[in-house]
Amino acid sequence: GNSVTQMEGPVTLSEEAFLTINCTYTATGYPSLFWYVQYPGEGLQLLLKATKADDKGSNKGFEATYRKETTSFHLEKGSVQVSDSAVYFCALSDRGYGGSQGNLIFGKGTKLSVKP
Amino acid sequence: NAGVTQTPKFQVLKTGQSMTLQCAQDMNHEYMSWYRQDPGMGLRLIHYSVGAGITDQGEVPNGYNVSRSTTEDFPLRLLSAAPSQTSVYFCASSLGQGRTYEQYFGPGTRLTVT
User: Fold this and answer.
1) In chain B, which residue's Cα lies nearest the Cα of A46?
2) Nearest CA to A91 among A60, A46, A61?
3) Which residue in chain A is spatially nearest to B38 when comparing CA positions?
4) Most exposed residue of A7, A25, A36, A37, measured as fewest CB within 10 angstroms of its CB?
5) C-alpha A9: how far from its chain's center?
6) What residues of chain A, 24 to 83, have a C-beta less than 8 Å from chain B?
7) DSSP single-letter state for residue B73
8) How many CB atoms lie within 10 A of CB B18?
């Protein structure tokens, strides 16, 4: 079945460091890929998405490229800030059949802590 | 525009009690869903609905019941609470049913079953 695997955390970085959070997926067909972020005590919010191969999603300095050949969607940011401390979830939305289309399948999440 | 709202924010139940977690959205979204979040497990889909009067099961539906009588509301009922249902519950909605639509999440309900 469809699944998402993302790197285990927690990840601790100093401010202005480079961030990579790895995400790979298994899916039939052509899923859409997402990164959601969860700040402490809050619900999830969409960070970026890509809907087809070679698409690059970007937002708030974060980027991820949909790589079909490696089934990956790694999240990157060139210079992290303390305010980026959060839990990051990679997710896919499968094509499915009938009613299941659009359901999200999440990775386990990666907690990022950025120190000043 | 409140987005997706959930009540209560926190709840403690005893084993065997029942309760309803409320979820409402004011964005006229057709698709709504419930997830549970457990440490090290990510979010798992409990039930979802593609419109009023239509619901279906997700990955972990056992012990939960849903109904969708209006577009705005999608309550989640725990029929007989068990300690294994201790979790954080998130409701989400999106404009349509399809793989490109962004889902909007509520702030969550933290449930403890003793």
Assistant:
1) B102
2) A46
3) A108
4) A7
5) 13
6) 31-32, 34, 36, 41-46, 49, 51
7) B
8) 11
B39 preceded by cis ω (within 30°)? no
Nearest 10 degrees: Cα torsion B28, B29, B30, B35:
-140
Tokens 């997830």 sit on residue:
B35
Reported residue count of chain B is 114
What's the helix, strand, coil split of chain A in %, to 5?
Answer: 5, 50, 45
Bridge partners (DSSP) of residue B111 are B11, B87
| Widest CA span in chain B | 40
pLDDT digits (tens, 9 = 90+) for A50-80: 988 999 999 999 999 999 999 999 999 999 9
Amino acid letter, residue B67: S
Q: Enumerate the residues of chain B whose CB falls inside 8 A of the CB of residue A46.
A: 102-104
Closest-approach residue (CA) in chain A for B10: A41
Cβ contacts of B31 on chain A, cutoff 8 Å: 102
pLDDT in tens, B41-100: 889 999 999 899 999 999 999 999 999 999 999 999 999 999 999 999 999 999 876 667
Nearest Cβ partner of A46 from B41, B96, B102? B102
